[in-house]
Amino acid sequence: MAASRRYQSVMIVDPWEFRGFCFRGEGRRNVVVSAKHQNEDMRIVWRLTKDKRARIVALNSNSELLLKYIKSYVLPLLNSNFFCEPQLVKIHFEDMIHIAKVPLLPHNQKVDSFSELRDNIRFPLSLFPLDYRSRSEFGIFFSDWSLDNVLPVLDENPFISALQMPDATRMPKKIFNSLVMYGPTITVEIKPKQGFYQKHPGVNVSFCNNCILQLEKTQSKEFCKMYDYCPLELFSGDFNRMMNALISLFKNPHRNLRLFRDGDCVYDDHVDFSDLCRFQNQLFPGQEDSLNVLLSLVRFVAEQTVLLYNYFK
């Protein structure tokens, strides 16, 4: 991916070279922003570290630590054909102020250019809150994010680390010289959760870690009700149990499943589809039984993960 400069041998992102900025997702410790390079047929994402205590972009990124973990523990398990290694990049804090506006955009909205994104009248709030309005909006009161502490840090090192990787929701139609693909890009994003019991000396827990967290979140009213999905079922290796787990996840995603069609999120926990037939028409208009094909493909990937785990354990 083109960039004009390097900082300490790490590529510096020039956001003026990108267009079509949009929000891709969020986890406990990250937000993901997507953009397309103006001169290349590839859409990328930047994974930005979130602060532990608030929904803002962290001043101290964990991107380098995460990349070391991926290289040490994830890459050795997977063939390079099935995994895109992230690239460590740097983003200047003045650019980060505007890039961090993207997670606040409405669902599936894109901002055409970085110049447009810099319009503080249209887009006044940022998750990298150096301005007074954003700081007030997000309640930035803890001491290590006071401007007296933040500004000297940025003066010394004005760049924030991020991980850059291809955006799997929009794949180029031509990957190799001899391979041209047709039709929409259908992307399934699953957070399968921990697929084994967590053992502690002297503690006998009959639930997996995911189910325990679901109980906690339900009691705290973060979720209205529990879902039937259990990662132990998904990674069981049994066809029926795996399919039932996937169907449960599709019926009630709970932030652990999203589906994209040509870059637009068409199904997640914010979309209420009471039956899978209606959902199937949204994803595969005019096609019969294609949802079962999709479920079978996802189950196959999970099955291969089980085999991989058993091989290396």
TrEMBL record:
GO terms for biological process: inositol phosphate biosynthetic process. It catalyses: 1D-myo-inositol 1,3,4,5,6-pentakisphosphate + ATP = 1D-myo-inositol hexakisphosphate + ADP + H(+). The keyword Cell cycle does not apply. It is an enzyme of class 2 (transferase). One of its GO terms (molecular function) is inositol-1,3,4,5,6-pentakisphosphate 2-kinase activity. It holds the Pfam family Ins_P5_2-kin. Its EC number is 2.7.1.158. It comes from the Eukaryota. InterPro entries: Ins_P5_2-kin. Keywords: ATP-binding, Kinase, Nucleotide-binding, Transferase. The keyword Nucleotidyltransferase does not apply. One of its GO terms (cellular component) is nucleus. The EXKPK motif is conserved in inositol-pentakisphosphate 2-kinases of both family 1 and 2. Phosphorylates Ins(1,3,4,5,6)P5 at position 2 to form Ins(1,2,3,4,5,6)P6 (InsP6 or phytate). This is Inositol-pentakisphosphate 2-kinase. It comes from Bursaphelenchus okinawaensis. The lineage of its organism: Eukaryota, Metazoa, Ecdysozoa, Nematoda, Chromadorea.
